[in-house]
Design brief:
about 850 residues; mainly beta; 24-stranded antiparallel β-barrel; globular
Amino acid sequence: MMTKPLAPLVVAILTALCSGAGHAESYFNPRFLSDDDGAVADLSRFEKGSQQAPGSYRVDIWRNDEFIATEDLHFVDADKQAADQATNGGLAPCLDGDWLKRLGLNMQAYPALANVKAGECIPLPEAIPGATVAFDFNKLRLDISLPQASLNNSARGYIPPDQWDEGIPAALVNYTFTGNRGSNDDSYYLSLQSGLNWGAWRLRNSGAWSYTSGDGYRSNTWKNISTYVQRTVIPLKGELVMGDSNTGSDVFDSVGFRGARLYSSDSMYPDSLQGYAPTVRGIARTNAKVTVRQNGYVIYQSYVSPGAFAISDLNPTSSSGDLDITVEEKDGSQQNYSVPYSTVPLLQREGRYKYDLVAGDFRSGNSQQETPFFAQGTLIAGLPNGYTAYGGTQLAERYTAAVLGLGKNLGDWGAVSMDITHARSTLADDSDHQGQSLRFLYAKSLSGYGTNFQLLGYRYSTKGFYTLDEVAYKNIEGYEYELEDDGSHNKVPVAQSYHNLRYSKRGRFQVNISQAMGDYGSLYVSGSQQTYWGTDDDNTWYQAGYASGWKGISYSVSTSWSKSIGLAGTDRIVAFNLSVPFSAFLGNGYSRDRAIDRAYATFATSRNSDGQSTVQAGVGGTLLEDRNLSYSVTQGHSSSNGYSGSATANWQATYGTLGLGYNYERDQREFNWQAAGGVVGHADGVTFSQPLGDTNVLIKAPGASGVSVENQTGVKTDWRGYAVMPYATVYRYNRIALDTNSMDNHTDIDNNVSSVVPTEGALVRAAFNARIGVRAIITVTRAGRPVPFGSVVREEGGGATSMVGDDGQIYLSGLPLAGKLIIQWGDGKGLRCTAPYALPEASLKQAVVVATATCS
């Protein structure tokens, strides 16, 4: 009886054969494995090296070092003369005419390809002179090199529209619920964004409910923020919106409207200038509530810790136009300021046109304004030599405006644009006015010096110039109020904004500059100042800050100054923040697997212009295996309210995010909580998720429960094998990968990576073929002897495949408890058999089960 062969020896022999690819064809003698020829399958395919079986493989496809897609591609036997057989597995991709079009090949330049039949494999190196194909089987990467002259004239990163996925029919709901139960009153806030997707159409609604109750009073309000329907218009590279939305802010200031808008979509184009969203900065003295309003509507509300804060995740549909910020401190005091927003210089590539057409009623949540009908049209054109020309008009019954402008790319000197607007206005008192407004915008990034002029602008207006937003006011002068608690359980009106059309806008300056200083930290300055005709008062907001770190210790100092015309007081705040990780004291190095190393101590202090000061110290960090539970405990003191403290915890879970908090002060105790998440209804059922983005991916892996999604904190498949990955990038490849390490012993997935290209607002499906079953080592015999070594094995029902090892042992995963194994060891008749098997119920509780079967 021969000695049992060792697998490493077999691998070494096969590897040695591969190294002779450049010489005469090698012959593999099966007697190296056994003296019995019948105990070994036909292994002639290994004579050519590490040859793999033809079929479909999921591979990463690259063209000229640019990623194209991750998809299943059919492979055939490579030509015997093909080079590097050991690397490509003896396989060549089957690329048909449709695939060549996806690769961007100019088919008209090669008339011979016109006669190729659908689905026919095209030998690329023969059909396209200079083309090469390289397949790395070990990495499952296919590199295709095509001469630049053979490609269509498309920009780098271009994805053809026929690859865009409009998604599946679905109903979506996004919710954010915050509650506060205090010693004196209770308050609740619910924000809902719901929608329906059908083909290319998207129906969206946004609304908010607020409730406040206390001794002797109650407030219960619901506000519908917007309702609209939207779809992509691919031939026009644009988006169509009908309903409640906002105009663009490239040429005119953004205003709300109820009507229709057709506009160019930058994201449909390859990577270039994408939209700019403002970052709202501020400084909180205590655990404060930050509310962001636009056109009178609350579009964002959250709680922040003491110190400087930055809000950079505003909904893109609401990110243009002036933002009114309210920071409500724990002691009841408020900061109110505005963040005006204008785009960076209006530059377009040569030959690119950007259009925007709007018609509808002016829309505002400000009760002081009317809703006149208006029409607006703008056009931006990219010209040769780095120039961009743009213009537009606004037309309403009591308002007419026209603008012309020019932008220029100055190369090393940055980019600049300048425009002039002429407007004729009839105000609420029926007085007629006309005037001009000159706007200058500049942007520059000095990468070598770490300086970034993200936005630098100035606007000068003559005394008779008014905007459409100002003409919509019902009165020449007035306040917009909101009911607030006066501290005595009474609701009193508190002014949130003020307008006086006698004080028309004169000059507005905006700046946003950041400076990186390498190991010495970074410095930033942001701010704006709006002056008016007829008064020396102005609206001013500035903030400056410095941040740095040393050996894991981070610290920052910041200051802000704000005042608003018509609102009493000037608010100045200076703050200092310090964060020290516990690992800095332990001296045994940092490990992200230890909770103590993920903990840190904090210190914050601030002082405002009224002499009020706060000091706060605490600890915080993250817990759980996925680091998706964050916590913070603080103790502080303020000059106005004495000692205070807080404890908060936030959990980023599979089905949403949850937050709990407790705060106490001298005369008040309160609990607050927050829950946010999404619900998606689709053809396969209902899936709960973390808060949804505008565009999302539905992961479908039926039966694979509890599987994590790579690079998505807390996102796992539910009990049915479904999950939602929020915030997909539109018109770009999105890689979705399941973490195989998080699968249980009875779950296997053929390919754990998928790629999708969603359109705006779509819910696209990424499907994975999960095999749920038993992992087993089955020893199969035939006529009392082990089936031949190297035989190919396939499970008849589920399609699991493997190869026979030593002594007839076969390892398979995803097996049903009962089935048939089809075993084949050659191409001739009689070189295959079928082995029925049956596994006990207890196999479902075992990591790997051992069994036997007989093949006949």
